[in-house]
Amino acid sequence: MWNDLRPIGRDPESNGYRRFAWTGADADCRTWFQEQAETRGLTYETDRNGNQWAWLGDPTAGDAVVTGSHLDSVPDGGAFDGPLGVVSSFAALDELRARGAEFTKPLAITNFGDEEGARFGLACVGSRLTAGKLTREAAYELRDADGVSLPEAMEAAGYDPSAIGADPERLARVGAFVELHVEQGRALDLSGDPVGIASAIWPHGRWRFDFRGEANHAGTTRLVDRRDPMLSYAETVLAARREAELAGAVATFGKIAVEPNGVNAIPSLVRGWLDSRAADQDTLDTVVTAIEKAAHDYADRHGIDLDVVRESFTPVVEFQHALRDELGAVLRERTGRDIPVLGTGAGHDAGILSESVPTAMLFVRNPTGVSHSPAEHAAEDDCLAGVRALADVLEGLACR
Ligand code: HGY
Ligand code: MN
Ligand code: MN
């Protein structure tokens, strides 16, 4: 399975993945998912938001145990972020069938669309729409860098965008959602455990900073006569690092767009995207407010116009304690080890769904902690330990 999925959307130069929502690579990943479902005799469907579901048993019976993740990537992302959870879900089902497990509840494996928000800027679009956290109207406003709207992109990929929106009936059939994901950090490497359980997801968001100055000639315009937005951007990036360090949070300017983007032209517009996260909402608010203030102070002093727009936001997620502890008990009984419970600064579909259904997450050790990079890696033994842990958890939840 892993080797069939591996080449899809991988850039030969960077060896990173470019599996963006509703593109050809996304379509190939979806085809792979459907093949995996159908070769296992599962009932395959896509929901009104384009998320893929593979069912064992009768979905209308309710109280289904659902597991899965996402297949899309960040630009030049790694092979594991998302796909490890989907491949492990199919492998865990294979393992349960090999054990002769008797399912007493429906089981579903899912691929939630557009989790990374790499193309349209909003994280977890597929699960947000389904959970009613993104309205159809707001989704129709999303545009990619070429101005293509989300509905246009869905239509071009052969999906009907007119039905997108909340799907409470579907979520009412779900008794629990468990997402396995490669750890995006080194806690398990440091503790020496192959598998961990999630406790919480930090609140996190994305803010777009538009710095507008005055386009002019790079060679003939005196420094004193310039209104160069690149300087305000640079000052803001440094302020973001300062404020994050002060507050024990994280802040990243990882994406920038410059107009007209000419080597010999002072920019008219510099657009920078801030990703900031913190262990609690107050800290996050403090950091982002301080960064915005620093940006406005500098812009005002230098005649630069600044607009800040919040493009994506996910509040803190505390995974349901009962399900978290049930996973811990099952795995302690099966492995004889106390499984570490760890928080994360990375967002996930499980976080988005956590207000609609009981959700939990399993993490698989990432020896370097590196993620959102072609260098992302997990050892095969740890991935197999993850599959066994997921199979144990699914057996405990769905095969009583
Ligand atoms: O950005 C995140 O935390 C996730 O990878 N979408
Ligand atoms: Mn990711
Ligand atoms: Mn992910």
TrEMBL record:
<feature type="binding site">
    <location>
        <position position="206"/>
    </location>
    <ligand>
        <name>allantoate</name>
    </ligand>
</feature>
<keyword id="KW-0378">Hydrolase</keyword>
<protein>
    <submittedName>
        <fullName>Putative N-carbamoyl-L-amino acid hydrolase</fullName>
    </submittedName>
</protein>
<feature type="binding site">
    <location>
        <position position="116"/>
    </location>
    <ligand>
        <name>Zn(2+) 2</name>
    </ligand>
</feature>
<keyword id="KW-0862">Zinc</keyword>
<feature type="binding site">
    <location>
        <position position="277"/>
    </location>
    <ligand>
        <name>allantoate</name>
    </ligand>
</feature>
<feature type="binding site">
    <location>
        <position position="81"/>
    </location>
    <ligand>
        <name>Zn(2+) 2</name>
    </ligand>
</feature>
<feature type="binding site">
    <location>
        <position position="81"/>
    </location>
    <ligand>
        <name>Zn(2+) 1</name>
    </ligand>
</feature>
<dbReference type="GO" id="GO:0046872">
    <property type="term" value="F:metal ion binding"/>
</dbReference>
<feature type="binding site">
    <location>
        <position position="264"/>
    </location>
    <ligand>
        <name>allantoate</name>
    </ligand>
</feature>
<feature type="binding site">
    <location>
        <position position="70"/>
    </location>
    <ligand>
        <name>Zn(2+) 1</name>
    </ligand>
</feature>
<dbReference type="InterPro" id="IPR010158">
    <property type="entry name" value="Amidase_Cbmase"/>
</dbReference>
<keyword id="KW-0479">Metal-binding</keyword>
<comment type="similarity">
    <text>Belongs to the peptidase M20 family.</text>
</comment>
<dbReference type="InterPro" id="IPR036264">
    <property type="entry name" value="Bact_exopeptidase_dim_dom"/>
</dbReference>
<dbReference type="GO" id="GO:0016813">
    <property type="term" value="F:hydrolase activity, acting on carbon-nitrogen (but not peptide) bonds, in linear amidines"/>
</dbReference>
<dbReference type="InterPro" id="IPR002933">
    <property type="entry name" value="Peptidase_M20"/>
</dbReference>
<dbReference type="Pfam" id="PF01546">
    <property type="entry name" value="Peptidase_M20"/>
</dbReference>
<feature type="binding site">
    <location>
        <position position="181"/>
    </location>
    <ligand>
        <name>Zn(2+) 1</name>
    </ligand>
</feature>
<feature type="binding site">
    <location>
        <position position="372"/>
    </location>
    <ligand>
        <name>Zn(2+) 2</name>
    </ligand>
</feature>
